[in-house]
Design brief:
Length: 77
């Protein structure tokens, strides 16, 4: 099963996140099936960029969205 979730990148205390479609059993920063966007909470206001067309495609294929990504999808840009 494919999940849409966050993968951590960056140095300690300087984390940024990529929104990825990845197989359920893979490690958090394992090789993703596809990168769908990014989230940078360090700048004010936080930067969020998501390819909504690809997220909709993966959802139609049965992908499960994690709670953290779900919150980012609901936030107005």
């Amino acid at each position: 099963m494919v999940k849409i979730r966050l993968a951590q990148y960056g140095a300690k205390n300087r984390r940024t996140y990529r929104i990825v479609a990845i197989e359920e059993g893979k490690r958090r920063n394992g090789t993703p099936v596809e990168m769908l966007g990014f989230y940078n909470p360090l700048v004010k206001p936080a930067q969020v960029s998501i390819n909504l067309e690809r997220v909709a495609y993966w959802k139609s294929q049965g992908a499960v969205v994690s709670p953290g990504v779900e919150k980012l999808l609901v936030k107005p840009s």
